[in-house]
Amino acid sequence: MPELPEVETVRRGLKKFILKQKLQKVEVLCEKSFVGESDLVVRAKVQDIRRFGKALVIDFDNLYSLLIHLRMTGQLIYDGKERYAAGHPSENFVAELPNGQTRVVLTFDKGTLYFNDQRKFGFIKVLDTFDVEKEEFIEKLAREPWKMSGDEFFEKLQRHKDASIKAVILDQKVICGLGNIYADEALWMAEIHPKRKAGSLSRGEAMSLLGAACAVMEKSIELGGSTIRNYVKADGTRGNYLDSFARVYHRDGEACARCGGTIEKIKVAGRGTHYCPVCQK
DNA sequence: CTAGGATCCTGTCAGC
DNA sequence: TGCTGACAGGATCCTA
User: DSSP of A127-144, one letter per residue?
Assistant: First the structure.
């Protein structure tokens, strides 16, 4: 998905558009994508929008909340006076909606929020606001990298010493926010080979990786993740901001920006993994 | 407990 | 053109 920076971008954007608006109607087009009783939030006002790792929470003033996880291909597209779209970048950002990938439609006073999700791994769930933090995956979520000490991170690596470092930093119970792209980017920045066993990293390498995870995600949040704005370029053509942001992701065959080596693509932890075999040790 | 693979689902793309 | 398998910005479940 949509990794942490994208979800944070959605949160900030949505807050601007739907805060204080009343939800008028919920249409569930795909049962799998919506859990719970939708009537509980109808006619309630949006009080706040929070984020837990890669999960988004819309709190309503009647103490019910919508927990949203975009997983791999989820997107939230708000269509009001103007359109705001973020999440997994695709033509849906600019398409006529609803379409075949629209799973849930939330109608507000001044606009409509579409939850699109090609692969249906994502979901929206109605919860009592006080129960959000009791959801199992949220309860188990590790700290975000900028809130984690080097010592804590290093200790966690020892607990998973025999797993590849890439698999470990993708584990949201170890450190939260990184997904397949930012994991590759952080490992490149820290000059660490993705297949290294987590236990083989020195304390210094662990610190450097933690710093890289912070740097990569903070910079992406600053640039606004994947949104309609950086999907549709000024001249009207389409582009993905990752094409300019990423140093290794989807750059196999290209020259490494640091050492000129050739970026390779391999499989680690069951995921496509991009790295420079020359400078990542 | 950990590590790794299969699995959920739809769509696209490379290669025959 | 039409088919096939591989793969995809995530996380859980199952097995060893």
Answer: EEGGGGGGSHHHHTPPPP
**Of A100, A101, A97, nearest to A117 (Cα)?**
A101
Encode burial over A162-179: b for 16+ CB neighbours within 10 A, e otherwise.
Answer: ebbbbbbbbbbebbbbbb
Instruction: Among all protein residues, pick the one whose CA is nearest to the C1' atom of B6.
Output: A270
Q: C-alpha distances in angstroms, A123 versus A30, A186, A232, A246?
A: 10, 28, 26, 28
Using the C1' atom of nucleotide C6, identify the protein residue whose alpha carbon is closest.
A272
State the pLDDT at residue A1: 63
Average pLDDT of the segment spanning A181-194: 98
Please say whether the dihedral angle defined by the alpha carbons of residues A99, A102, A72 and A217, taken in this order, is positive or negative. Answer: positive
Annotated catalytic residue A54 = yes
Q: Which nucleotide is nearest to A120 (CA to C1')?
A: B9
Summarised one tens digit per residue, pLDDT across range A101-116 is 999 999 999 999 999 9
Chain B bases near protein Cβ (<7 Å): 1-11
Which nucleotide, over all strands, has the C1' atom closest to the CA of A168? Answer: B3
Number of CB atoms found within 10 A of residue A28's CB: 15
pLDDT (0 to 100) of residue A237: 83
Domains of chain A: 4-139 (3.20.190.10), 145-275 (1.10.8.50)
The 3-state DSSP class for residue A197 equals strand
- Kindly report, residue by residue over A132-165, the tens digit of the pLDDT: 999 999 999 999 999 999 999 999 999 999 999 9
pTM exceeds 0.85, yes or no: yes
Catalytic, A3? Answer yes
Query: Out of A5, A6, A54, A205, which one is annotated catalytic?
Result: A54
